[in-house]
Amino acid sequence: MAIRALSSLEKEVASAVVLLGQSQNWEFAAYIDVSSGSLIELITRMTSAAADPSGDVHKRIQSGASVIVHHNHLSQESLSSADWNGLVSSFDETFAHRADGTTYWGRVRNDDAVGRVISNYQRHEMNAQNYLSQRLCAQSCPYSSELGCFFRKEVINQAMKTRCFVDYEVSWGSQPFPVSPCMSIPVRATGIFGSRISQHISNASNALAYSL
Q1: How far is the C-alpha of 148 from the C-alpha of 145, rounded, in Å?
Q2: Mind listing the pLDDT tens digit for each residue in 127-171?
Q3: For residues 31 and 94, is the Cβ–Cβ distance under 8 A?
Q4: Of 173, 210, 180, which Cα lies nearest the Cα of 195?
Q5: In angstroms, rounded to a whole number, what is the distance separating the alpha carbons of residues 18 and 93?
Q6: What is the dihedral of CA 174, 108, 54, 14, to 10 degrees?
Q7: What are the CB-based long-range contacts (under 8 Å, 24+) for 110-116?
Protein backbone atom coordinates (compact mmCIF):
# COMPACT_ATOMS: atom_id res chain seq x y z
CA MET A 1 0.00 0.00 0.00
CA ALA A 2 1.40 3.39 -0.99
CA ILE A 3 0.82 6.67 0.79
CA ARG A 4 -2.19 8.32 -0.81
CA ALA A 5 -1.70 11.11 -3.31
CA LEU A 6 -1.54 14.58 -1.75
CA SER A 7 -3.66 17.49 -2.90
CA SER A 8 -1.95 20.56 -4.31
CA LEU A 9 -2.47 22.34 -0.99
CA GLU A 10 -1.04 19.40 0.95
CA LYS A 11 2.07 19.38 -1.22
CA GLU A 12 2.54 23.10 -0.56
CA VAL A 13 2.15 22.82 3.21
CA ALA A 14 4.35 19.72 3.34
CA SER A 15 7.13 21.66 1.65
CA ALA A 16 6.49 24.68 3.87
CA VAL A 17 6.72 22.85 7.20
CA VAL A 18 10.01 21.22 6.17
CA LEU A 19 11.58 24.45 4.93
CA LEU A 20 10.40 26.43 7.95
CA GLY A 21 11.68 23.71 10.26
CA GLN A 22 15.10 23.79 8.63
CA SER A 23 15.37 27.58 8.81
CA GLN A 24 14.03 28.01 12.37
CA ASN A 25 14.90 24.63 13.95
CA TRP A 26 11.34 24.39 15.27
CA GLU A 27 8.52 22.01 14.57
CA PHE A 28 5.73 23.41 12.40
CA ALA A 29 2.33 21.88 11.72
CA ALA A 30 -0.41 22.56 9.20
CA TYR A 31 -3.99 21.57 10.06
CA ILE A 32 -6.35 20.91 7.15
CA ASP A 33 -10.14 20.54 7.22
CA VAL A 34 -11.03 17.29 5.44
CA SER A 35 -14.49 18.32 4.29
CA SER A 36 -13.43 21.59 2.65
CA GLY A 37 -9.83 20.69 1.86
CA SER A 38 -8.83 24.09 3.22
CA LEU A 39 -6.00 25.11 5.53
CA ILE A 40 -7.20 25.91 9.05
CA GLU A 41 -3.83 27.08 10.34
CA LEU A 42 -0.07 26.76 10.04
CA ILE A 43 1.48 27.01 13.49
CA THR A 44 4.63 26.60 15.56
CA ARG A 45 5.04 26.66 19.32
CA MET A 46 8.71 27.58 18.87
CA THR A 47 9.93 24.22 20.17
CA SER A 48 11.79 21.44 18.42
CA ALA A 49 9.42 18.59 19.21
CA ALA A 50 5.79 19.79 19.17
CA ALA A 51 3.42 22.09 17.30
CA ASP A 52 0.10 21.68 19.05
CA PRO A 53 -2.90 23.34 17.38
CA SER A 54 -4.76 26.39 18.60
CA GLY A 55 -8.16 26.35 20.26
CA ASP A 56 -9.81 27.01 16.90
CA VAL A 57 -8.71 23.61 15.59
CA HIS A 58 -9.95 21.90 18.74
CA LYS A 59 -13.31 23.66 18.46
CA ARG A 60 -13.72 22.41 14.90
CA ILE A 61 -12.91 18.87 15.99
CA GLN A 62 -15.37 19.07 18.89
CA SER A 63 -18.05 20.16 16.43
CA GLY A 64 -17.42 17.04 14.35
CA ALA A 65 -14.86 18.17 11.78
CA SER A 66 -12.19 15.76 10.57
CA VAL A 67 -8.70 17.22 10.52
CA ILE A 68 -5.48 16.12 8.79
CA VAL A 69 -2.05 17.10 10.15
CA HIS A 70 1.11 17.74 8.15
CA HIS A 71 4.19 18.47 10.26
CA ASN A 72 7.97 18.27 10.14
CA HIS A 73 10.09 15.96 12.27
CA LEU A 74 13.38 17.56 13.20
CA SER A 75 14.47 14.28 14.77
CA GLN A 76 13.97 12.70 11.32
CA GLU A 77 12.41 9.70 13.14
CA SER A 78 9.10 8.00 12.43
CA LEU A 79 5.70 8.76 13.98
CA SER A 80 5.97 8.97 17.76
CA SER A 81 3.70 8.03 20.65
CA ALA A 82 2.61 11.69 20.78
CA ASP A 83 1.62 11.52 17.11
CA TRP A 84 -0.45 8.39 17.72
CA ASN A 85 -2.00 9.92 20.82
CA GLY A 86 -3.10 12.88 18.70
CA LEU A 87 -4.67 10.49 16.21
CA VAL A 88 -6.52 8.62 18.96
CA SER A 89 -7.86 11.79 20.54
CA SER A 90 -8.26 14.30 17.74
CA PHE A 91 -7.05 13.82 14.18
CA ASP A 92 -8.02 11.74 11.16
CA GLU A 93 -4.59 11.39 9.56
CA THR A 94 -1.06 12.51 10.34
CA PHE A 95 1.83 13.06 7.94
CA ALA A 96 5.36 13.67 9.24
CA HIS A 97 7.82 15.00 6.70
CA ARG A 98 11.58 14.71 6.86
CA ALA A 99 14.19 16.97 5.31
CA ASP A 100 15.57 14.15 3.13
CA GLY A 101 12.19 13.67 1.44
CA THR A 102 10.94 10.84 3.65
CA THR A 103 7.25 10.92 4.58
CA TYR A 104 5.60 8.94 7.38
CA TRP A 105 1.80 8.58 7.33
CA GLY A 106 -0.65 7.07 9.77
CA ARG A 107 -4.23 6.79 10.96
CA VAL A 108 -5.76 4.77 13.76
CA ARG A 109 -8.04 1.79 13.21
CA ASN A 110 -8.36 0.58 16.82
CA ASP A 111 -8.28 3.34 19.46
CA ASP A 112 -8.11 0.99 22.45
CA ALA A 113 -5.28 -1.10 21.03
CA VAL A 114 -3.19 1.94 20.13
CA GLY A 115 -3.89 3.38 23.58
CA ARG A 116 -2.46 0.20 25.13
CA VAL A 117 0.67 0.48 23.00
CA ILE A 118 1.12 4.11 24.04
CA SER A 119 0.73 3.23 27.73
CA ASN A 120 3.64 0.76 27.45
CA TYR A 121 5.62 2.69 24.88
CA GLN A 122 9.01 2.75 26.61
CA ARG A 123 9.03 -1.04 26.91
CA HIS A 124 8.06 -1.41 23.25
CA GLU A 125 10.79 1.05 22.24
CA MET A 126 13.42 -0.97 24.10
CA ASN A 127 12.24 -4.25 22.55
CA ALA A 128 12.01 -2.74 19.06
CA GLN A 129 15.53 -1.37 19.33
CA ASN A 130 16.90 -4.69 20.55
CA TYR A 131 15.14 -6.75 17.88
CA LEU A 132 16.47 -4.57 15.07
CA SER A 133 19.98 -4.13 16.48
CA GLN A 134 20.38 -7.88 16.95
CA ARG A 135 19.31 -8.61 13.38
CA LEU A 136 21.67 -5.99 11.98
CA CYS A 137 24.54 -7.19 14.18
CA ALA A 138 24.00 -10.76 12.94
CA GLN A 139 24.54 -9.42 9.41
CA SER A 140 27.72 -7.61 10.50
CA CYS A 141 26.06 -4.29 9.76
CA PRO A 142 28.10 -1.27 10.95
CA TYR A 143 26.34 0.97 13.45
CA SER A 144 23.78 -1.71 14.32
CA SER A 145 23.11 -0.19 17.75
CA GLU A 146 22.69 3.33 16.39
CA LEU A 147 20.41 2.15 13.59
CA GLY A 148 18.35 0.09 16.04
CA CYS A 149 17.85 3.19 18.16
CA PHE A 150 17.08 5.48 15.24
CA PHE A 151 14.52 3.17 13.58
CA ARG A 152 12.88 1.81 16.77
CA LYS A 153 9.70 3.85 16.22
CA GLU A 154 9.50 2.58 12.65
CA VAL A 155 9.61 -0.97 14.00
CA ILE A 156 6.76 -0.21 16.42
CA ASN A 157 4.67 1.45 13.73
CA GLN A 158 5.06 -1.44 11.33
CA ALA A 159 4.22 -3.85 14.15
CA MET A 160 1.00 -1.95 14.90
CA LYS A 161 0.17 -2.14 11.19
CA THR A 162 0.74 -5.91 11.24
CA ARG A 163 -1.74 -6.19 14.11
CA CYS A 164 -4.25 -4.03 12.16
CA PHE A 165 -4.25 -1.45 14.95
CA VAL A 166 -3.34 1.28 12.46
CA ASP A 167 -2.94 2.10 8.81
CA TYR A 168 0.68 3.07 8.36
CA GLU A 169 3.08 3.69 5.47
CA VAL A 170 6.51 5.19 4.90
CA SER A 171 8.02 6.59 1.71
CA TRP A 172 11.80 6.73 2.05
CA GLY A 173 13.52 9.84 0.80
CA SER A 174 16.93 10.14 -0.83
CA GLN A 175 17.81 13.83 -0.58
CA PRO A 176 21.14 14.60 1.15
CA PHE A 177 20.64 15.94 4.64
CA PRO A 178 22.62 15.43 7.89
CA VAL A 179 21.16 12.97 10.38
CA SER A 180 20.19 13.97 13.91
CA PRO A 181 23.14 15.41 15.88
CA CYS A 182 22.88 12.56 18.42
CA MET A 183 23.59 10.02 15.68
CA SER A 184 27.04 8.78 14.71
CA ILE A 185 25.96 7.16 11.44
CA PRO A 186 28.11 8.70 8.68
CA VAL A 187 25.42 9.07 6.04
CA ARG A 188 23.72 12.15 4.62
CA ALA A 189 20.36 10.59 3.84
CA THR A 190 18.84 8.40 6.52
CA GLY A 191 16.04 7.49 4.12
CA ILE A 192 18.64 5.64 2.07
CA PHE A 193 19.55 3.62 5.15
CA GLY A 194 15.86 2.96 5.84
CA SER A 195 15.43 1.64 2.34
CA ARG A 196 18.54 -0.53 2.56
CA ILE A 197 17.56 -2.18 5.85
CA SER A 198 13.82 -2.26 5.20
CA GLN A 199 13.68 -6.07 5.31
CA HIS A 200 15.44 -6.11 8.68
CA ILE A 201 12.99 -3.49 9.97
CA SER A 202 10.11 -5.64 8.72
CA ASN A 203 11.52 -8.76 10.38
CA ALA A 204 12.01 -6.91 13.66
CA SER A 205 8.45 -5.54 13.50
CA ASN A 206 7.08 -9.06 12.97
CA ALA A 207 8.98 -10.22 16.04
CA LEU A 208 7.57 -7.33 18.06
CA ALA A 209 4.00 -7.43 16.75
CA TYR A 210 2.44 -10.06 18.95
CA SER A 211 3.90 -8.65 22.15
CA LEU A 212 1.96 -5.40 21.65
Answers
A1: 5
A2: 999 999 999 999 998 889 989 999 999 999 999 999 999 999 999
A3: no
A4: 173
A5: 18
A6: 20
A7: 110/164, 110/165, 110/166, 113/160, 113/163, 113/165, 113/212, 114/84, 114/87, 114/88, 114/160, 114/165, 114/166, 115/88, 116/212
Could you tell me if residue 1 is inside a domain? Answer: no
Tell whether the model's pLDDT for residue 182 goes beyond 50: no
The SS3 assignment for 106 reads strand
Amino acid 40: pLDDT:
96
Q: Which residues pair with 80 in a beta bridge?
A: none
What is the residue range of 185's domain? Answer: 8-209
Residue 2 lies in a domain: no
pTM over cut 0.90: yes
Candidates 30, 205, 26, 194; CA nearest to 100 is 194
pLDDT single digits (tens) 99-120 = 889 999 999 999 999 999 999 9
Query: Does residue 136 lie within any of the structural domains?
Result: yes
Q: Considering its fold, how many domains does the chain have in total?
A: 1
Which residues touch 200 (CB under 8 Å, ≥6 apart)? 132, 135, 136, 139, 141
Residue 99 belongs to a domain: yes
Backbone angles phi, psi at 20, to 5 degrees: -65, -40
- Over residues 119-137, the pLDDT tens digits come to 999 999 999 999 999 999 9
